[in-house]
Amino acid sequence: MRKSATPAPAEVRPKAKAPAKSAAARGTVKPAPAPAADGRAAAVRPWTKAEIEEAFRRFQTANPEPKGELEYVNPFTLLVAVVLSAQATDASVNKATRPLFAEVDTPEKMVALGEERLREAIKTIGLYRTKAKNVIALAQKLIAEHGGEVPRDRGALEALPGVGRKTANVVLNAAFGEPTIAVDTHVFRVCNRTGLAPGKTPLEVETKLEARVPPAYKRHAHHWLILHGRYVCKAMRPDCERCLINDLCRWPGKKTLAAPARAGRS
Predict the structure, then answer these.
(1) Could you tell me which of 82, 71, 64 has the C-alpha nearest to residue 220?
(2) Which of these is catalytic: 30, 109, 184, 239?
(3) What is the pTM of this model?
(4) Which domain, by its residues, includes 62?
(5) CATH code at position 107
(6) Can 184 be counted among the known catalytic residues?
(7) Is residue 109 among the annotated active site residues?
C-alpha cells in the first residue's frame, strides 16, 4: 500500500512590516538651518524706496559728517593708507603710518625713502613686503605719468600697483568728494544681512547700492554702512539692541525690538 505523500509544510511568510513612521511622527524633524551669520540668506521681501530713504535719514541724523578711520594728510597719503589697509585693521595701519606720514607725504619722498626702509616702517602690518613693493611702484608711476599727483579718475587709479576698485572708490570719495561707494567686508555683510542690497560679490552689492541709495545720501553712504557694520551689525554678535534700522532689517535672525530704535550714533 502506497503511503500518501507527506503534506508540505505551510509556507511561513514574514510578518508584514508596519509602515515607517514619518520623521514628523518620530519627532526627528530637523529645523531649517539658521541664517548664516553674514546674512547671505535671501531677504523675504525687498526694501521699498521709502524704507531706504528712512534708513539713511536716520544714519544722517545720528552722524551728519561720518569719517573714515584711516589717518592721512593729503590724497597721496590716503591712497597709501588704503593700499596698506588690505587685510589689516585701520588701527594697525594708523600706528605704522602716523610717524611715516609725518616725514613722507609725497610720491617723491616715498621713492627717496626706498623699499627697504619702507618695509621697516610698516613691518607691523600684514603682507608688509608686498605692500612696500606696491607703494614704491605706485609712487614711481604717479611721478612718471601724473606729475606726482593722485589722479581723479577711476581707471587711472586702478592702473596703479596694488590699487583695486574698492581702493579707487575710497580715494575718489574721501579725497575728491565723489559719491562713490566702496564695498568692504562690513558693507558687504550689512547689505546682505539686512537685505538692503544683497549680492554674491562686492561689485554686485556696489551696483545695487548705486541704484538704490538716494542721491542726497550717496556721498556718505559707505561710511555709514562701514561704521554700522564695524560697531553694531558685527559679524559674530550683531548688537541688534543698538541698531538704528532694526525695524527695517530683513534678517530672520535679528533680535526684534519692542519699538523702532531712536537715532543715535552708530
Answers:
(1) 64
(2) 184
(3) 0.79
(4) 49-67+181-242
(5) 1.10.340.30
(6) yes
(7) no
